[in-house]
Amino acid sequence: MSGDQILQLFAYLMPAVVTGAVAFYFFRLHTRNEDGRRRFLLHKDSQKDTLPIRLQAYERMALFLERIALNSLVVRVAPASKNKGDYENLLIKQIETEFEHNLSQQIYMSDACWNIIKTAKNTTIQIIRSAGMSATDSPDKLREDILNQTMEKESPSNAALAYVKKEVSDLWS
């Protein structure tokens, strides 16, 4: 082949190569957009199904935090005996039972939110135990001590509830 023939062959192939490259580029761009659109529609459909379940989980955890708030807990749970230790154990058992009842809700919320809820539960139990170490001898005095401790500082349940509310508000934005 001579140089003229190679140049002529190149002139014939050049438009086909350019057309093929442009077609490949636009086809690839189109398939990426279609994949993105399908993912968006799938996410939108799943969000429609999962959002009510997630909101219900947050509602249940808000109720849990309200129920273990020390001021409502000691009012709701009356001492069964005159033994201070029994009442302390009863309060802790109530918290643990509530927590175990709502344990499955963790799959619907973030790890940070779940950890804050667990910390609020553990801190509440710690407050009850530290009040139980005082020199009081009756369950009624223990109730007073627990309520006095909640008056001095913010309840762990309130702090956790504020975080839960923030996380729920982030679902809308």
Automatic annotation (TrEMBL):
Alphabetized Pfam families for the sequence: DUF7935
Classification via InterPro entries: DUF7935
Top-rank lineage group of the source organism: Bacteria
Transmembrane segments: 6-27
Protein's name in the database: Uncharacterized protein
Lineage: Bacteria, Pseudomonadati, Bacteroidota, Flavobacteriia, Flavobacteriales
Keywords tagged on the record: Membrane, Transmembrane, Transmembrane helix
Source organism (scientific name): Flagellimonas abyssi
